[in-house]
């Protein structure tokens, strides 16, 4: 078997840097991509130069400070999230290169068939959330890449790490004046990124909900933040209707079915989200030198 070589797209992004650190620690042969996704000639030239066996695409526009940015920058959002992503996947398909594409599960929203506490959304359910332009572009891409034979597409949601970095979902909601209190699927990166890399190495293909099993509410997360990180922390709630008044774009709230992911990764140590979340805060507190 030929030696595996990994090209990581998204060197300035949080997830891309975490993936790169894992590959470096393992002593894998890898490098960051230097092209811009929307320039097909640059993509092809680097693929032909480095000749990776696997590409991990962590690039894409999410907006700063949040997805509301995409509402006023639609062309830029499409250029990166749709045109650029498809450029990469198609160029890799021509060269028989496996692509792991890190996407989002924010393409669903609770409804009558999938109420809070009811049946979670599976990979086969049609996206039903078009409340933000960001989510619309992600749904566009999913529809097309289903037909590509070289793609592993992982749907992350509200990713959380063992620190309070600026992109960590915990950091974000701890800084909000008010939060909605709705259970959601979430991605505990410490548990799931090793599974992503293992699936990449095995050249697994298809679309996977990439979240810990189950759902956890914003209040439950912040209660753990108060318990382990800041005993003086307080917050307040507001309704979806009240939230909508301060946002340009809607926000997805949903629970994803993780059974396909679990079946593909037996023994990977992926815990139900509530236990995984408690363990995140224990590690976070330890990393910050806080007494248990």
Task: Walk me through what this model shows.
- By secondary structure, the chain is an alpha/beta fold.
- α5 (133-145) links the parallel β4 and β5 (151-156).
- The chain contains 11 helices and 8 strands.
- Helix content is 40%, strand content 12%.
- The longest helix has 21 residues, at 74-94.
Category from helices, strands and their pairing: alpha/beta
CATH topology of the domain at 5-158 and 189-215 and 253-271: Rossmann fold
Which percent range describes the beta-strand content? 5-15%
Using the coordinates above, name the CATH class of the domain at 5-158 and 189-215 and 253-271: Alpha Beta
Basic shape = globular
Number of helices: 11
Strand order of the largest sheet: 2-1-3-4-5-7
Name the helix and strand elements from N-terminus to C-terminus, one letter apiece. EHEHEHHEHEHEHEHEHHH
CATH-scheme architecture of the domain at 5-158 and 189-215 and 253-271: 3-Layer(aba) Sandwich
Report on the biggest sheet.
6 strands, parallel
Instruction: Give the helix proportion (percent range).
Output: 40-55%
**Span from first to last CA?**
47 Å
Question: CATH superfamily assignment of the domain at 5-158 and 189-215 and 253-271?
Answer: NAD(P)-binding Rossmann-like Domain
Show unreliable segments. Answer: none
């Amino acid at each position: 078997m030929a030696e595996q070589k990994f090209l990581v797209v998204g060197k300035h992004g949080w997830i891309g840097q975490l993936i790169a650190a894992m590959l470096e620690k393992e002593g894998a042969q890898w490098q960051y991509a230097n092209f811009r996704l929307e320039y097909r000639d640059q993509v092809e030239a680097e693929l032909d130069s480095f000749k990776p066996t696997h590409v991990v695409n962590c690039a894409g526009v999410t907006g700063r400070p949040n997805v509301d940015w995409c509402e006023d920058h639609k062309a830029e959002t499409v250029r990166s999230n749709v045109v650029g992503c498809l450029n990469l996947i198609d160029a890799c398909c021509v060269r028989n290169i496996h692509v792991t594409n890190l996407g989002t599960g924010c393409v669903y929203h609770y409804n009558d068939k999938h109420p809070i506490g009811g049946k979670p959304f599976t990979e086969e359910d049609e996206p039903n959330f078009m409340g933000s332009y960001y989510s619309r572009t992600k749904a566009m891409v999913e529809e097309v890449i289903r037909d590509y034979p070289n793609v592993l597409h992982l749907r992350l949601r509200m990713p959380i790490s063992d620190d309070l970095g600026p992109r960590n979902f915990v950091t974000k909601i701890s800084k909000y004046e008010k939060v909605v209190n709705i259970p959601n699927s979430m991605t505990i990166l410490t548990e799931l990124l090793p599974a992503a890399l293992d699936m990449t190495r095995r050249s697994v293909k298809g679309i996977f909900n990439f979240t810990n099993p189950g759902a956890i509410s914003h209040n439950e997360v912040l209660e753990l933040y108060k318990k382990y990180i800041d005993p003086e922390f307080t917050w307040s709630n507001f309704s979806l209707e009240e939230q909508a008044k301060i946002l340009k774009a809607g926000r997805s709230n949903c629970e994803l079915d993780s059974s396909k992911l679990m079946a593909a990764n037996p023994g990977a140590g992926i815990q139900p989200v509530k236990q995984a979340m408690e363990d995140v805060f224990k590690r976070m507190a330890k990393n910050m030198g806080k007494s248990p």
